[in-house]
Amino acid sequence: MRQFRTYLGTAVLLLIWFAGVQTRGETPLPFFSDAELAIQYRERCAYVIDQIVENTDPNDFTRGSMFNIAANLHSGTNIEWARKRIVAANEPPTGAMFWMHPMVLLMETGRGVLNEKDWAFIHELWRTYFPYRGDTENHWIMYYASIYLAAEMRPDAGREQWYNGKTSAENMAEAKEYISDWIRITTSYGQGEYDSPNYIEEYTRPMALLAGWAQDPEVRQQGKMMMDYILLDYVVESLDGLYGGAHSRLYPRYLLQPSLTAGAAHGWLFFNQGEYRANSGNTLIALSGYEPPPILFRIAHGRANQGYVQRELKRTRWRLRNAGPDAFEIDEKSTTPVYKYSYVHPDYILGSSQGGLLQPIQQQTWSLIWSEKNAQGKTNTMFGLQPFSSPLEGTMYFASDWDTVTNLIARSKVDYDSPDKLEGGSPYEHVVQDESTLIALYDIPEGTRFPLINTLFSRDLKHRIEDYSGWIFGQGGPVYVAYRPLAPGEWREVDWTGLLKSGAGAWFSTNFEKLAEGSQCFVSKSLKNGYIVEVAPVSDFESYESFQAAIRALQFEFSLDPIPSVAFTNLSGKMLFANYGEPLSVNGKAVDYTQWKLFDGPYSYAERESQSLEIKFGQERYFLDFKNLRIESTILPAE
Amino acid sequence: MKILAYYFIAFSTFAAFNAQVGAMEETRLFAALAMTKAQESSPIPTDSGVFIYNGNTDTWERTGPVIQSVGSITTDPSNPDVVFLACGNGIVRSRDGGQTWRMTSGWRESDFTKIAIDPVDGNNVYATSVWGMSVSRDGGDTWARANRGLAERYSRTVIVDSRNPKRLLLGTADGIYQSNNRAKSWQVVRSSPRLTILRIARSESNPDLWIAGTEGEGVFLSKDDGKSWSKTAPELGNANIYAVAMDSSDESRLAVAGWGTGVWISIDGGASWIDRGAGLPSKNVTAMIYDPNQSNRLWVSTFEEGTLYSDNEGKDWHDGGLKGAYVFDLGVVSIK
């Protein structure tokens, strides 16, 4: 309870500070020293661990994850329960890399606590359980970070002591090489599973493990630097802890409620944004001792009142075949550039990628999120998609056969082959954006499995008006939204097939009926199609009516044949011209994707293939040099 | 202890065979599979691995480690104690008849589909994967990529020419490729269809006769030792063919099958084809082989609806087990 009171005290201080921030410069910004930020962060870490310990029932050996066991081992509490639970939780071991990394966490926190018998049991698991390495980037990095640390704890273990018949030295060498290569590719060409509000923790978990426990100083430094890197990537596109913009992967319930994501949970732990929510990634990180550099907190909280553009270069997952004309190769594997563009405003984030099949199954090509005083329970988001599903996509990214791949995908991602799904890329979608204006165009061939487009209008987009002008207006929190469909459509409830409400989606659609209730989709079945989204802060207008009038007055022309195209002058007075399949033209100048940087925004900069990242806030500069595993913290001259 | 005992049994199946049959060498049927039918709300099959058919007990018995995503298995023709698994994780090898196993490939190799060994020099091992061809020159100790000349690396199947072990035929996403220098370089076989080759088989009774199943263009046949290929079985013109088989004792007897096709059989060397899918629980076939130990017996694996066999050219089908399995490869291995 003492720690909780301390935590509450800090929270009150921060709330007072937030109030200052949210009045937009009217109150002088308070300043937290690096030491104060570190203390506050450690208190939140302690709270995470305390919560788990408090909720452990030492008499119930049937409940408690390996993360929970680790928290108790770390705290020196419920040790007998932990010992028995280790055995019960591993009869038999399952989950491959999702077993490996919490097992390593448990082992690291169990040093000096577990007895010989416990270790013998654990070592036998590593000898006999042969984990699958997986088929995604997050699987591999979890696998190799885990085997690295497990082997490092037993450096002299021979071949006969490991499931794969390799010695500890061989396992460590292989893992170290993969980890270094993953870092090289990520910091050169962008992350393959980029900016996922769900999967961010599948990267922070292994990196925090390395940062916390790797004995090799190079590997430890790699873990710490990649933690910094991933968190910067998140913080420059986050809004009160919610991850905005285009995403590589998102599950249905998290699409509808951004505050439920692991990204949001990280926002609370690292930057005290949003509310505390139990999260395994946070547990691991809290135990690891990793501490974020203070500059990230300052970016999260001290961003300018003006909006800014954040451009980022990412890449698709590796493509096995059907790689397409835009593909390039890295070490004999094909991938395609992903051009991310986000407009980050104090009240909202509108962000997009170019469209196409950039990620299998769960891509979110564009999204809008807006600020809410309390985002818990809110569907403070909007997005659109063509619900594409095809073996073409499946076989592009997975080793399965053409005729079974869709079926097998839908065994776990059950909505993949459903017309009302809320996530996924489409080869027939083309999205462009300039600051608060987004234009999406669709050219869907005859015979496409689900020949329609869906746009979410959430229950928290209030005061919806279908205007005589053809625009649809709404207000989400402090943001006005105007949506102009280019073809007729109809309103349908979210999940109009009922697939997810029925519980078929298991954990990732738990409570979906409640989450989706009151929200609707605008569904249009025209094959040549598109829409414009124009967003503006409420504070820019005298009234809702004046916003509507301003939108109606905008110059706007479009045609759908032979290909969809739009000419639109937005609220900023910029003349935008979008033609399906071509770069956006802004005031007569085409956007040049060849110049896209790995990171390009007011708080971050990285050139393609640089293996570095410059983080800036005011005069503070924090530089990550991955080639030399060097962190440089400097103060720039005052402007 | 129950689990440990289970693993012990799993790791020791090959060894058990050795003990049973002494130093004798025999050919056994294998199935590399994943149990997917009961896989619900999960990306993980309920079971997977390689299973060996025991004709005495009419059961399938696991061999090798319990490991997700095993595409195929093979043994060294010159030393059946050397066993290779082509896995999602990489190449897993045993050198003691299955008593112990070791993953010999590293992080650069993954997602293997098929593996073949030089019948003369067991140091040369060839493995196909969705990332291309990997080769070992030291019996599987180390691996390197061997994709020189390939337009598309995605590969599903490879066969070493038993008459000329320097020569290999490889099924890629760009047709059939040939190497005449032990996979140092590849050239496309010009008459092969330029699309994904899913399966290739060669007749043991007439080594000039080859057959290939494609993704989207049905079946192709070569009667001149893989030099030229022409379409056969016009009834399966646009089918995805996941299974091709040639009877080792009778060159005129061929079988092909794929998705939605059931089984088609030819008894005249591919000149004509008969639909023998009636009686199968599913027309979706993923693997097939003529049993070298039982004349005229054809084994067929359907997608999740079991493996069946016929002793009368597909007129009648009998339950062969493996219900619920997605069989990736059905073949034979030599066991000492």
Beta-strand portion of chain B reads: 35-45%
First-residue to last-residue Cα separation of chain A: 46 Å
Estimated share of beta-strand residues of chain A:
15-25%
Number of strands of chain A: 29
Number of domains of chain B: 1
* Greatest interface: A-B, 41 and 48 residues
- List the domain count of chain A as a whole number: 3
Largest sheet of chain A: 10 strands, antiparallel
Strand ordering within the main sheet of chain B:
3-2-1-28
What features would you describe in this structure?
- The complex is a heterodimer of chains A (639) and B (336).
- Chain A contains 18 helices and 29 strands.
- Chain A is of the alpha+beta class and 639 residues long.
- Chain A has three domains: 61-189, no CATH class; 306-601; 604-635, no CATH class.
- A ten-stranded antiparallel sheet of chain A has the order 9-8-7-6-3-25-26-27-28-29. A six-stranded antiparallel sheet of chain A has the order 11-12-19-16-15-14, with helices on one face. In chain A, strands 20-21-22-23-24 form a five-stranded antiparallel sheet, with no helix packed on it.
- Chain A is globular.
- The two termini of chain A are 46 Å apart.
- Chain B has helices at residues 2-11, 13-21, and strands at residues 26-35, 47-54, 59-63, 70-76, 79-87, 91-94, 102-103, 112-117, 125-129, 132-136, 144-145, 155-160, 168-172, 175-179, 187-188, 197-202, 210-214, 219-222, 230-232, 241-246, 254-258, 262-266, 274-275, 285-290, 298-302, 306-310, 318-319, 325-335.
- Residues 1-22 of chain B have low confidence and may be disordered.
- Chain B is globular and about 45 Å long.
- With 336 residues, chain B is mainly beta.
- Chain B has one domain (2-335): Methylamine Dehydrogenase, Chain H.
- Chain B has a four-stranded antiparallel sheet. In chain B, strands 4-5-6-7 form a four-stranded antiparallel sheet, with no helix packed on it.
- The interface between A and B is large, with 41 and 48 residues.
Sequence-ordered SSE layout with sheet pairings:
The complex is a heterodimer of chains A (639) and B (336).
Chain A: H1 2-22, H2 34-54, H3 66-75, H4 79-88, H5 97-109, H6 116-128, H7 137-153, H8 168-189, H9 200-213, H10 217-235, E1 238-239, E2 242-243, H11 252-256, H12 262-271, H13 280-288, H14 294-301, E3 308-315, E4 328-330, E5 333-335, E6 337-344, E7 348-352, E8 366-370, E9 381-382, E10 384-385, H15 391-397, H16 405-412, E11 429-434, E12 437-443, E13 453-457, E14 462-466, E15 472-476, E16 479-485, E17 490-493, H17 512-516, E18 520-524, E19 528-537, H18 544-552, E20 556-559, E21 565-569, E22 575-579, E23 585-586, E24 589-590, E25 599-601, E26 604-606, E27 612-617, E28 620-625, E29 630-635
Antiparallel strand pairs in A: 1-2, 3-6, 3-25, 4-5, 6-7, 7-8, 8-9, 10-13, 11-12, 12-19, 13-18, 14-15, 15-16, 16-19, 17-18, 20-21, 21-22, 22-23, 23-24, 25-26, 26-27, 27-28, 28-29
Helix pairs in contact in A: 1-2, 2-3, 2-13, 3-4, 3-5, 3-13, 5-7, 5-9, 7-8, 7-9, 9-10, 9-13, 10-14
Chain B: H1 2-11, H2 13-21, E1 26-35, E2 47-54, E3 59-63, E4 70-76, E5 79-87, E6 91-94, E7 102-103, E8 112-117, E9 125-129, E10 132-136, E11 144-145, E12 155-160, E13 168-172, E14 175-179, E15 187-188, E16 197-202, E17 210-214, E18 219-222, E19 230-232, E20 241-246, E21 254-258, E22 262-266, E23 274-275, E24 285-290, E25 298-302, E26 306-310, E27 318-319, E28 325-335
Antiparallel strand pairs in B: 1-2, 1-28, 2-3, 4-5, 5-6, 6-7, 8-9, 9-10, 10-11, 12-13, 13-14, 14-15, 16-17, 17-18, 18-19, 20-21, 21-22, 22-23, 24-25, 25-26, 26-27
